[in-house]
Design goal:
Blueprint: E1 8-9, H1 11-18, H2 22-29, E2 39-41, E3 44-48, H3 49-62
Length: about 70
């Protein structure tokens, strides 16, 4: 379940929100304080869109050099 109307996001969308590569988003998603995935399926992990958006704002504010 992805897309602008979905309540969930996948790693590629997290990368887009953060302005980083998918590989870097994978690393960042494992950092302390990042939201936990809601589930994992054959295509990978999914996160809550609202949680990721709120976290991404904090992440950018706390790490402006990124």
């Amino acid at each position: 379940m992805t897309g602008s109307r979905s309540k969930t996001v996948r790693l590629v969308e997290i990368a887009e929100l953060l302005g980083v590569t998918k590989q870097r988003a994978h690393q960042i998603a494992q950092e302390k304080g990042s939201p936990a995935p809601l589930a994992e399926d054959a295509r990978g992990r999914v996160w809550s869109r609202l949680e990721v958006q709120a976290w991404a704002k904090r992440w950018r504010r706390e790490k402006p050099w990124r």
